[in-house]
Design brief:
Length: about 100
């Protein structure tokens, strides 16, 4: 049995699409291996009613992420890892006074 040109073209397109989708999955999997939560492996524990992913000795000195599930805590950790430190702003009683 031989396939018509139309069916051969459809089969080739389906194979190309499947290969493209597989390549995208490999790209996503590779990117996930570079996530801060994968590279730095923060401790994961329950804190109150949420999960906490913590890298460091404590919440004040470390990087932390919180979420309703371990995955959400790790995602929040990855986001927190990218944030810059903000300088401590001194609270004053009046404008211009430090």
């Amino acid at each position: 049995m031989t396939l018509s040109d139309e069916y051969q073209s459809m089969a080739a397109n389906a194979i190309c699409h499947a290969a493209s989708m597989a390549a995208e999955e490999w790209r996503v999997a590779g990117a996930m291996h570079g996530a801060p939560s994968v590279v730095w492996k923060p401790r994961l524990f329950i804190d109150g009613n949420q999960w906490c992913a913590l890298y460091g000795e404590n919440l004040q000195d470390g990087v932390a992420g919180f979420g309703d599930s371990p995955a959400k805590a790790m995602w929040d950790f990855d986001c927190a890892w990218q944030k810059a430190l903000t300088p401590n702003v001194e609270v004053t009683d009046s404008p211009g006074k430090r």
